[in-house]
Amino acid sequence: MKQKKYWQSFGELKNSDNYQENVQDEFGEDLPMAEHEGIMDAKAPRRDFLKYVGFSTAAATIAASCEMPIKKSIPYLNKPEGITPGVPNYYATTYIQDGDAIPVVAKVRDGRPIKMEGNDLSSITKGGTSARVQASVLGLYDTARLRFPMANGKEVSTFEAFDKMVADSLAGLGGKPVVLLTETITSVTTKNVVASFLSKFPGARHVQYDALSASGILNASAASFGKRAIPSYQFDKATTIVSLGADFLGTWLSPIEYARQYAVGRKINQKNPEMSKHISFESMLSLTGANADDRFVHLPSEELAVALNILAAVGGSVSAPKLAEERLNKGIKLAAASLKKSGSTSLVVSGSNNTDVQVVVNAINQQLGAYGTTIDWGTTLNTRQGDDAAMVQLVQDMNDGKIGAVLIHGVNPAYDYFDAKKFESGLKKVVSLSFNDRLDETTSICTYALADNHFLESWGDAEMKSGFLSFIQPTIAPLFKTRAFQTSLLKWSGDATSYGDYFKQYWLGHFGSQTAWDKALQDGVVEAPASASAGSYNGSALAAVSTVAPKALGTELVVYSKVALGSGKDANNPWLQEMPDPITKATWDNYAIISFAMAKELGIVVDDNYEVEVSKPVIKITAAGKEYSLPVLVIPGMHKNVIAVALGYGRSEGAGAAAAGVGQNAFPLVSFNGKTFAYSVSNVTFAKSTETYKIAYTQTHNQYEGRDEVVREYALEEFKKNPTILLDVRNELVEDFATETGSYRDDATLYPSHPYPGAKWGMSIDLNSCIGCGACTVACTSENNVAVVGKSEVLRAHEMHWLRIDRYFATYRDNSGEDNLDDLNVVFMPMLCQHCDNAPCENVCPVNATNHSSEGLNQMTYNRCIGTRYCANNCPYKVRRFNWADYMGADSFPDNQKGELDDAVMMMNDDLTRMVLNPDVTVRSRGVIEKCSFCVQRLQEGKLKAKKENRPLETGADGKWDIKTACQQSCPTNAIVFGNVNDKNSPVSKIRSEEQTNRVFYALEQIHVLPGVNYLAKIRNTDRHVGVAEEGHEEAAAEQHEEKKAEAAH
Amino acid sequence: MNHKRKIFQTLYSVFILTAFLSISELVSAQDGKALFNQKCASCHAIDKQLVGPALKGVEDRWDDKKMIYEWVRNSAAVIKKGYPRAVEVYGQFNKIQMTAFPELKDADIDAILGYIATGGAKAAAPGAAPVAEQSAGKESDSNMLYGILTLILAVITLILLQVNSNLRKMSDESQGVASAEPIPFYRNKAYIAIFAILLFLGAGYFLFQSAQGLGRSKNYQPEQPIFYSHKVHAGVNQISCLYCHGGAQESKHANIPSVNICMNCHMGINEYAKGPKLYREDGSEVDGTAEIQKLYKYAGWDPSTKKYTGDAKAIEWTRIHNLPDHVYFNHSQHVTAGKQQCQTCHGEIQKMDEVYQFADLSMGWCVNCHRTTKVQFTENKFYSIYEKFHEDLKNKKLDSVTVEKIGGTECQKCHY
Fold first, then answer.
1. Does the beta-carbon distance from A859 to B411 stay under 8 Å?
2. In this complex, which of B247, B328, B379 lies closest to A85 when CB atoms are compared?
């Protein structure tokens, strides 16, 4: 009896009393005013009450009789052409971080960049973004940014003085070489600047260092193809995708591009339902693994063996070591069969940084004929060029006193180099200069610091893939006394031109005419891809790969990077810190993720109380001679002998108020194997300690109170056989409620339906394309001024995200009646206000603060709201958020909140940080409910644009969009489609009425709230059974629950 | 019978034709005026020299009408060609080039010329829409009337009550019934109760009224750093509002013009001599020329050398119209899409010297207007999606579509 149920937490899975109690009371605490000693506790409450009334009336009278504040209106002296206050300008530019380069369009309102949008013109991203790209605009207003040049920890007043000091230092090196240590540089002009700088200093060299290295792939490419580069992977052309631990949807190489391509193969055409097959082999549950059709776990030390086994199984002449686990072997067989079937349209990728593994992966792809079809050597990916060995060599040389000066740009080895101590001691022996944007771990120990401009303040270019250029143009004048680091390099190599001029001159020469250059800058991207090429494969490297079976290495630990934080450069970005991790749903921390089995071994009881209790047991881990005390999170889908810890946490004070002291730094667990960095450790020992630690995770907030199923999922074959399987559910509702007319919509309610004379807004979310990356969550935060509440508030379920992504696990129950937690599917479901046509929230508001618009919006009027929270209680989707405190400082003095709210929240209230607020959206104050508005400000703007141009509104018909919601715009996979349902030609109405009729469903359709958001059922290309159990699992569980209750009553 | 019908038909068609012609004439004149105000009025007046020459008799000064068309569309080209009148005008007016209007067609220019020829003298201030002041006045009159009536009735009631009690007392006395000692009315419980209730109601009413008025500032008229008279600019000289407040067409803000826009005209106009005398609130006279000098100081303009010194300073105007932060108001929605006159909300600005806040800008005021104002329903193609309303209009089920009808009074049209 294999049954399955979708669950978000262990509590839900077991559905026991404690869990029920927890979810029933959405607002399980009293209003904060009752926490203090209230007037009711006083000895003479009536008198005190009168006193308070008297005082407040008098105070209010005095306050009201004051004169209104005088406001000034200060116009421009000379208004620049093209700028109209109140009208946003959009500039194409490029997001740059850790070597990544993503074409974006920055929305600039009244001189301030306030929102990042993807650049639709880029064929790489097609307008897609990631959470980090969305959040990068906040980085511009980061309070921890370095505001002036510094030497020996003191401010230097002018650039000239600073230049002189540096020039003197560089002149006095006594013949020792200068080294430029940077992140991967993709910019053509910057490379030229670097070259001319290096040529001025004899023996100087340039070292590129990637904290999250791809040296393994680069080395393997050099071995197999004689070219140290990364080819273009084309997931859209693949019919079978096998990922060996590569989190290509979340963090691996170029996730936005891959996610977009991946979604192409995952979209279902109803008439001919076909999709790619995606199999993942990994040690921990990654975002990519969560999206896989079939998923198998192995130990990190087995990654080479797994790759060799696949190679052998697809016909490679290699002797593969035997693997012990039966399930894994089955998986390899399954993968090989699918790969062989797909042949040249297969794609195998590996996230390993081990050269040997990558050599084997190259051999697999060569064996399958993937080169030239799904892997293109004509275009290479340039965003990772770092060489681990060169970095290790540099640190050695620094310690050996062979280096004169190190100039550091964009990297932070004192934090993210595996042997940071050695780097620090080396740095003390050289003249050191940092161009980093803050006093981070490295910069704070450098002799000189001269911050580079933020990318939104810079000129520049990036060639993220060969032939694909993206330009950077400033959207705001530098906020602080910072300077483009290229300008500094030019200056110190004796060239007085600024980089801005240098850059313009270069590209003007390249494009030949001002018009062509202007267009390039305006579009932001220029693409001249080379024709696809298979490269010249050389199999000799394979012979050197060891085929010895892996030894048992005890418990192993993997360090991984999170979708939100990456290598930790963005750690001071509260939007990213507060974005729940797609898998664990935890915010503001890193922790040790362990399996269910390991938890049992440790004596951690994973019962219904597990998630309800925020205090997590702490374990002591000893790995590679280092000791860590980390709280544990139990997550299904982990290998039973693997512990996973996220990178990017544990930053120093200098990183900023939001980053400092959050989590622990896991970079020391990285090691160097002689060729490349290794991101796993074996022979780890661990023990449970008596301590506990609170983890703020949103998993148990906002529950559906036992209503199900919220998500719908089917296997591809099942769907093909029975395409109307979903409609049967609806037919049941018609039978139950609308036997006479057959219209469930009209008949199942007492209320009259709303007329929608003009537009009727609707959204469609394709669960098949949604990968759960969280870009929409951050885009929504940025667009709608959603407050950051800090860890202490998330712990109390006070997070404010208007759009959350629900993560469901689905597991089988095996014959013993236990849930097999390894054999799982994960479904992501973006959940936002559903804008119900029969909205339960509207009926219960005593002050009519939430009501229905003639365009189908469930409107929330903050000024009417008195905070009864009835609406949130009555919302079946739990998407309404209550402002427990004045998070945004909308109506109080910031000092009042110090100590009450976390430092990160206070940081968001800084005058500098508040510049990121969208002036078209009200900043909510304490005591009101808020929720998704379907980006009503964008709807109004789009409608007005159409009105002014005297034409009908375009909501996506023929690819013309007046309106895209922030979440839709940010989505890398186009999972979200928004538009006017009344317009028969709009994509959203086409999806509902023609294209996807068999997959359209509404969340909790049976409660007849008539949502304005529809979902498209998830289809999984697997032979396993997916979807809910056919026979009464829930009923059984409910019965069980009732019985338990009855027992308790006795 | 047939014969008669024919005559009737002819008459009818003639009537229609003349009506049509006169209407079309009206339309063109109307267009000419509108176009003049929109395109020309910022630099030209009909019978007075502004930045550009007075346009009265312009057709006589140019011997070739075609050259006028060309000149309007692209004056630089005409000068380049060396057309004598063009070169002459260019020289006369400090070689300031006239803005090119390539979008104007011959017919448009004819319309403008026609408007100039009719003298334009009859033209009133630009589109001053009659404002609801009158009706408001009426309402307050009748309120007063009701108040007085109520008061009189109340007094009569009081007197009657008093008379009644006196009569009763007398009748009691005459019939020999012993009656209690009369209580003076100020100790009479009934009177006290009535008085207390009235006081409570009255105080409540005033409290409510003044509480509602908190934060509203109707008639607010602050003193500005420069005595800038809208009457002189928009009224006497008929400069289009949008020449300075161009933002009103495209932005949520109407925008106070930047100093360079003032200087467009004031580079040439450096004294205030011919206009009506200007007075401040306190009755003191304003020296217009001195006010222009203030502008020069802000702009950093040296009128003697006719050059910018570079020493400029922003003008800190005092903002008059303030909406709370939780209100979204967009000028372009009202001006461009809704085709509203500025005066609808700002009052007869062309008659104000220093501007004051005309409306209280309360929500009730906004909503009332949205309830009665008709949208450009058939004119603007945006509204084509409202198929049902179009049908109802055709079937005469609806006579017009107001802003409210299309959701203009819903919360989230202004609050989000």
1. yes
2. B247
Question: What is the pLDDT at residue A575?
Answer: 94
Partners of B313 on chain A (C-beta within 8 Å) are: 77
Give A640-690 pLDDT, tens digit per residue: 889 999 999 999 988 888 888 888 999 999 999 888 999 999 888 888 888
Check residues B47 and A31 and name the one with the higher pLDDT: B47
CB pairs under 8 A between A and B: 152
Region at B366 (left for phi over 0; alpha for psi -120 to 50; beta for the rest): alpha
CB atoms within 10 A of CB A875: 25
Helix B288-299 / helix B259-266 crossing angle, nearest 10 deg: 130
Tens of pLDDT, residues B274-315: 788 888 888 888 888 899 999 999 998 888 888 888 888 889
Closest CA to A132 of A970, A749, A721: A970
Average pLDDT of every residue of chain B: 81
Nearest to B253 among A71, A86, A952 (CB): A86
- Would an 8 Å CB–CB cutoff place B315 in contact with chain A? yes
A940: chain B residues, CB-CB within 8 Å? 328, 330, 413, 416
Q: What is the DSSP letter of A815?
A: T
Cβ neighbour number for residue A422 with a 10 Å cutoff: 16
Strand partners, A731: none
Bridge partners, A586 (sequence order): A697
A644 close to A557: Cβ distance less than 8 angstroms: yes
pLDDT over threshold 60, residue A934: yes
Among A72, A85, A757, select the one facing B255 at the smallest CB separation.
A85
Instruction: Of A177-181, B61-65, B117-121, give the range with the top mean pLDDT.
Output: A177-181
User: Cα dist. B137→A648, B140, B142, B221 in Å?
Assistant: 70, 5, 9, 21
Of A74, A920, A948, the CB nearest to B337: A948
What distance in Å separates residue A481's CA from the closest CA in chain B? Answer: 24
Query: Which pLDDT value is given to residue A1039?
Result: 43
Q: Which two tokens stand for residue B334?
A: 């009202």
Rounded CA-CA distance B42/B45 in Å is 8
Choose, out of B214, B363, B411, the residue to mutate when testing the contact with A (most A CBs < 10 Å): B411
Spell out which residues of chain B touch residue A864, defining contact as CB-CB under 8 Å: 411
- Predicted confidence at residue B125, as pLDDT, reads 40
Does the CA dihedral A1037-A1039-A1043-A1048 come out positive or negative? Answer: positive
Name every chain B residue with its beta carbon within 8 A of the beta carbon of A953: 382, 385
CB contacts, 8 Å: B215 with chain A: 68
Contacts for A298-301: CB closer than 8 Å, 24+ residues apart: A298/A323, A298/A325, A298/A328, A298/A639, A299/A550, A299/A553, A299/A556, A299/A639, A299/A641, A299/A642, A300/A556, A300/A558, A300/A642, A300/A680, A300/A682, A301/A550, A301/A551, A301/A553, A301/A556, A301/A680, A301/A682
Residue of A nearest to B207 (CA): A61
> CA of A854 to nearest chain B CA: how many angstroms apart?
6
Taking phi over 0 as left and psi of -120 to 50 as alpha, with beta for the rest, A174 belongs to left
> In angstroms, rounded to a whole number, what is the distance separating the alpha carbons of residues A673 and A299?
18
Q: Is B388 on the interface with A (CB under 8 A)?
A: yes
Mean pLDDT lowest among A514-518, A681-685, A890-894, B329-333: A890-894
Nearest CA in chain A to B381: A951
**B413:A940 CB<8 A:** yes
Mean pLDDT value across chain A = 86
What is the ipTM, given to two decimal places?
0.83
Closest residue in chain A to residue B339, using alpha carbons only: A948
Tell me whether residues B261 and A79 touch, CB distance under 8 A.
Answer: yes
**Mean pLDDT, residues B171-189:** 77
Confidence of residue B120 (pLDDT cuts 50, 70, 90): low
Average pLDDT over residues A980-996: 91
